[in-house]
Amino acid sequence: MLAARLARAIARPLPQCRRISSTPCRRSDALFMHRDTPYNNPKIAFEFSSENLKRAQEIIAHYPPQYKKAAVIPLLDLAQRQNKGWTSISVMNYVAKLLEMPPMRVYEVATFYTMFNREPIGENFVQVCTTTPCMLRGSYEILDTVCQHLGGIKPGETTKDGKFTVIEVECQGACSNAPMLVVNDDFYEDLTSATTKKVLDAFTKGEKPKPGPQSGRHTSENSAGLTALASKPYGPGEFCTEEFR
């Protein structure tokens, strides 16, 4: 009897193990951990210029002394601009020392916010938005135009002459003027392949094209033109009763 039960138990197929996840492990494309390189290591000195140091002190003065670490973002931005557009380990260490805060706290900020570039970039930093509104208006065509017009580079790469770095980004907040891209600090909107090339050619020549819509429209009015606020706005108190003037 016992032998028969054992035989049935052995013959019964084992239950299959339930897998918690079947998706492959993928690493982020963001750089979170520092590794010393010849161009980015703590031995490369960095400090603010006299002009930027004065500006940094003005920024710090906006906060109570016990909360001056709150100035870490504007100071990192100021330092990144001085450091040719990217935030090195020396930049982060310098800001930490200036604000008397642990370097790790500065590293946390610099690795969290995508506005801080952890690797060197070109003279002109081109950010092409491909979020839904821009995508629906042809942003991938704009991205392809940028990459091909700059010598066939891919997003995340820099041209051989060091003049352009191109990346693909999320929403830049100009959805009503899609598709758009940002070059350094300026927005270029309502783009087509032709106008995109004109913008890039101007920067290649060392010029700065006029930011904003490249279609001829003013700000964000609709395709029919300006339909509201077409008349001069009235001044303060203009339609108030006499006792309130």
From TrEMBL:
Region spans: Disordered: 203-245
Family: Belongs to the complex I 24 kDa subunit family.
Organism: Postia placenta MAD-698-R-SB12
Co-factor requirement: [2Fe-2S] cluster
Biological process annotations from GO: mitochondrial electron transport, NADH to ubiquinone
Record carries keyword Translocase: yes
Binding site for [2Fe-2S] cluster: 129, 134, 171, 175
Signal peptide: none
GO molecular function: 2 iron, 2 sulfur cluster binding; metal ion binding; NADH dehydrogenase (ubiquinone) activity; oxidoreductase activity
Name by which UniProt lists this protein: Uncharacterized protein
Superkingdom, taxonomy of origin: Eukaryota
SUPFAM superfamilies membership: Thioredoxin-like (SSF52833)
